[in-house]
Write a structure and sequence with these properties.
With about 600 residues, this protein is mainly alpha-helical. It contains 24 helices and 5 strands. The strands form 2 sheets. A 3-stranded mixed β-sheet has the order 3-5-4, covered by helices on one side. Helix 13 packs antiparallel against helix 19. The longest helix has about 30 residues. The protein is globular, with a radius of gyration of 24 Å.
């Protein structure tokens, strides 16, 4: 996360889209009684100490701290509560405030103050008295808070409105997933969507302030946002915020027909007369910002922009490698992938045509997922029973939504999983096989449900690291080609081609945001690799709009492959893929330097038992 509990809504939406301690909290899918407590259970090794009573007291205190911290953060908004729980009242979450947060400097500073407070409280614990799994939570949380506070001088550097992942698209998408399990959920939903116009006003006030201080977004970016907003408001009568609401409320049994009709009428009125006008107002505000941009290039062109980019890369990749180290690694990987492609192409000129050919039907998502679920058992540990649905992205937002995405299930209902596929014309040639491996098995859905069923400390549900999560998704995506039924050269070619695209995007991202490449310099680099110059403008603008995002996927992937190759090299024939994957999955989302510290210990144990 970019900020620990900062810029509440934008961070929350990043968490839910796509995340073991002694006495770790456990939550059943549905407790028998109301107001159930969030409880703990003894299931860990003891700390190494000569004072067991004091250690036990410190461990209990630590569990209380992390549990209280989780409840404090989640209960800040009814929206947050509904993001993590299907039945929030069963866990004592009642009468939480209706707020979406705001983009003000006051809120920014307040969140930094909270992060400092949490860090001070955390560092008061005696680390040596904690169990190994508590130490893992401690290390992750402490590093997260320290990283978050590094952003405290960069208030105006955040972008709420990226065309692909901005709140103008992600908030409606999230609202479509808002669960109605009881009448109280409907009431909470109605109260929250009333706040959207004011929240969007605060975002546009923020964008205006940025523009006035020379940090406004470029016109091409504004044009994309305006187009995105126009798409959203184009289908007034059958808007998906109306149709999804009607579908969900009609399935409830604790509301009579007349009440349902009243709620349906109220929601329709809010959507048509409040939310859609808020988008129209955003369009007007964005139009007024055109021509005010003083930098159409990278972050390094701003004061302290290189420092911000370094922090952003650290935040999104979860890696402690410097930008220079990452750049060197990418250049080496680029040469390797280009060489592989050249050699394989020389060997078989038909590889391009064979890339997306499979021996089974890949037009049906369920067929693909069942195939993958059956295949991964040899190399990945047993997962958990997972119910899932695969749906299309709503047409009102598909043009500027991601090609596919997975929604993280609620803590108390991990069996409910949703994957969305974008059927927009832009993605008509998309190969569903690697996409569903990324989103489903052994990707996000498998990793998320596996980790949630290890009963981790609840606070770790708030600490989801993009580098780990998306790095695992890409790792799973490329690994899945081994199950595709294709010949070895086609598999190698598929992997090399996919990696080449990331090599180019990531090096261009660093070039633009760290080295100050112009649009033309970016295009020159792209053509030097063999890409057509016609894609140069799109790549440049995409990377300006979403800095370091591609790095999150690829550097995370390279961190995983580096550990795997190290284990393979040192263990030789004794290397076991399933054991390696179990180690990665059991630790769960974390910063890579913390994972690698544990990896060294794991590897030593593997050598001892080999």
């Amino acid at each position: 996360m970019k900020k620990f509990n900062q810029k509440f809504l934008s961070v929350l939406l990043l968490i839910v889209l796509v995340c073991t301690s002694c006495r770790s909290v456990t939550i059943n899918n549905k407790p028998d009684s109301k107001d159930s407590e969030i409880t703990t259970s003894d299931k860990d090794n003891e700390a190494n100490t000569n004072d067991p009573e004091e250690a036990t007291a410190e461990q209990k205190k630590f569990d209380t701290f992390t549990s209280d911290l989780f409840k404090e953060i989640v209960s800040e908004s009814s929206l947050s509560v509904h993001s993590y729980f299907s039945y929030p009242e069963d866990y004592g979450f009642k009468n939480c405030p209706y707020t979406l947060g705001d983009a003000s400097k006051e809120s920014f500073d307040e969140d930094n103050d909270k992060a400092q407070k949490y860090l001070d409280e955390l560092t008061d614990f005696n680390y040596d008295y904690l169990t190994d799994n508590q130490k893992l939570t401690y290390d992750i949380l402490k590093t997260d808070l320290e990283d978050s506070l590094n952003f405290s001088d960069f208030y105006l550097y955040e972008d709420y409105l990226s065309p692909m992942s901005g709140i103008q698209t992600s908030l409606p998408s999230f609202l479509g997933e808002f669960e109605f399990n009881a009448k109280s959920d409907v009431k909470d939903y109605i109260e929250l969507i009333k706040l959207i116009p004011d929240y969007y006003d605060s975002v546009m006030t923020y964008e205006t302030e940025k523009a006035e201080k020379g940090m406004g977004i470029p016109d091409f970016w504004i044009d994309s946002l305006i187009d995105s907003c126009n798409e959203f408001i184009s289908n007034t009568d059958n808007h998906f915020l109306i149709t999804t609401f009607n579908d969900k409320i009609n399935k409830l049994s604790d509301i009579d027909s007349s009440e349902k009709d009243n709620y349906i009428k109220e929601n329709t009125d809010i959507v048509k007369n409040s939310i859609l006008p808020a988008y129209q107002k955003m369009i007007s505000s964005l139009s007024s910002l055109k021509g005010k941009c003083k930098n159409e290039g990278g972050l390094c062109n701003y004061e302290n922009g290189k420092k911000y980019y370094e922090l952003l890369v650290r935040d999104l990749t979860s890696s402690d490698k410097t930008v220079s180290e990452i750049k060197d690694m990418l250049n080496k990987k680029l040469k390797k992938d280009l060489n592989s492609i050249m050699v394989l192409s020389y060997k078989d000129a038909d590889l391009y045509d064979k890339m997306d050919k499979y021996s089974f039907d890949t037009s049906d998502p369920d067929t693909i997922l069942k195939h993958l679920l059956g295949e991964i058992t040899a190399d990945f540990p047993e997962g958990y029973d997972t119910n899932y649905t695969v749906s299309d992205v709503p047409k009102d937002i598909e043009k500027y939504e991601n090609p596919a995405y997975y929604y993280i299930p609620h803590i108390d209902n991990t069996s409910k999983n949703n994957i969305y596929i974008n059927r927009n014309e832009t993605y008509k040639d998309m190969d569903l096989y690697p996409v569903l491996a990324h989103e489903g098995f052994p990707g996000h859905m498998y990793q998320t449900t596996y980790f949630q069923n290890t009963n981790p400390d609840l606070i770790r549900n708030l600490l989801r690291y993009t580098g780990y999560i998306e790095g695992w998704g890409l790792y799973a995506e490329l690994y899945s080609f081994d199950y595709s039924g294709q010949d070895k050269d086609t598999i190698k070619f598929n992997k090399a081609m996919q990696c080449l695209s990331y090599d180019v995007y990531c090096l261009a991202d660093i070039g633009i945001h760290y080295d100050g490449w112009s649009r033309q310099e970016t295009k020159d680099f792209i053509t030097s690799i063999g890409y057509d110059e016609s894609v140069g403008d799109d790549i440049f603008e995409t990377l300006v709009e979403d800095p370091a995002v591609y790095l999150a996927y690829y550097i995370g992937y390279l961190e995983f492959t580096d550990m795997k190759e190290t284990a393979e090299s040192e263990l030789g024939d004794q290397f076991n893929a399933k054991a390696f994957h179990k180690f990665i999955l059991d630790i769960g989302p974390a910063q890579f330097e913390i994972i690698k510290d544990r990896f060294d210990i794991w590897l030593s144990k593997q050598k001892t038992t080999a």
